[in-house]
Amino acid sequence: MMNAEDDFIDYYKILQVDPDCDDRALEAAYRNLAKMFHPDHTDTADVEKFSEVVEAYRAIRDQTKREAYNVIYSRHTGYEFSVSQNDVPFHSSTLSDAEAHARILNFLYRSRRENAQDAGVGRYFVQEMLGCSDESFEFHLWYLKAKGYIETTEQGTLAITIDGVDHVITTARTAARDPLRITRTDSADGGT
Prior knowledge:
Keywords: Chaperone. The protein is mainly alpha-helical. The protein has helices spanning about 10-15, 25-35, 45-60, 65-75, 90-115, 125-130, 135-145, 160-190, and strands at about 150, 160.
């Protein structure tokens, strides 16, 4: 990142993104630009721009570093962020993580239902379905393995465990009951 505020660098400009962009947009921009300027691409190679893109992404990909950078960015540019960088992104990334965990479990659940004896799915296919970075994917795997919801098979693939199946079923039952609870509450309130 930057050593001092006097050495301000506009990382958002380098990555060609809106300062309010979410983590996915930031990562997508980084991947696209890094690929374009990579020295292996003879038509568009630009080592200097490639280095700038890598530095910019490294400086703001971590939420804590990005929040600190945003304070400096606002001071230098006058830009006002549309949301509190301290609360909403963390909350939204937490909700996004919960959704990713549910998607992984549902994906592996369907695989187990379709082929109970050989339910393993390659890591690549699970990550591709999720469409996330390697770092995010490793976090999701760590969490789901630590909870006992998924495991790595002897073949090196990912599979849902019995606890994972129970979790998917419990979540589905809860989701099915919630609309009923809301309906009962609404009709009870209407009758009072």
